[in-house]
Structures are given as C-alpha cells and as structure tokens.
Amino acid sequence: MLTFWPAIGQRKYDWEKKQVFALSATEVGSLIGLGPAESCEFLHDPSMKSSLEGQVKKSLSISPLGNDNGYFLNLLYIATYHGLAPGHDESTTTNH
User: Fold this and answer.
1) SUPFAM superfamilies from the entry (predicted)?
2) In the chain, domain spans
3) Of 63 and 66, which is predicted with more confidence?
C-alpha cells in the first residue's frame, strides 16, 4: 500500500488530505519488473461493483526520472460528487 499527501509548498504537505493506493500482487510484480527506462500506470475505482462505482477514480503513474536514479510517482484522484453538474470534477494531483 502506498500513501500520498498533496504538496502545498516546498517540503510542506497537507496532512489532512491523505490518499492511499493499494497495489495488487500482479501490480507489485509489474512495478518490480520495471526497467530503468520503462513506465507504467495503474487505474483503480475503489467502489467498483457497488452503487458508487465511477464516482471516485485513482490513477497511479510511475515514470523514470531520466537520470537512472529513480522514478517519479504521480497519483491523480478524481471524485465526481452526486448532485453536481455533469463534468464537474474535484481533482487532486500528488507528485512524489
């Protein structure tokens, strides 16, 4: 399980807006198998197969930094709340 907090400044985070992203065993295998120049993306709907399906979507992108010293992780959280106009989303992007 990965835990993210959105940055609100240099080395400052909004500790109240924590997001978690739980990887499946297959996803962990894909992540471990990444080569130094490879990237991947995982898409999750935490409410899949329930009446709330589609209201929250999470996307985790992992891409190389370009200097062979690590990876850039980006978590995109999109929540579409019932009662808002179609197409109105609240989005949060967290970069680590």
Assistant:
1) ssDNA-binding transcriptional regulator domain (SSF54447)
2) 2-95
3) 63
Distant-in-sequence, close-in-space partners of 49: CB < 8 Å, separation ≥ 6: none
Cβ neighbors of 40 (< 8 A, separation 6 or more) are: 30, 31, 34, 61, 62
Is 35:48 a contact under the CB 8 Å cutoff?
Answer: no
CATH class assigned to 2-95: mainly beta
- The pLDDT confidence band at residue 81, using thresholds 50, 70 and 90, is low
Both tokens assigned to 91: 């989005």
Do residues 7 and 74 make contact, with C-beta atoms less than 8 angstroms apart?
A: no
DSSP per residue, 73-84: EEEEEEE--TTS
Mean pLDDT of 7-22: 92
* pTM for the structure as a whole: 0.71
Please tell me the number of Cα atoms within 13 Å of 2 on its side-chain side: 20
Integer CA distances (angstroms), 30 to 24, 36, 56, 94, in order? 10, 13, 24, 21
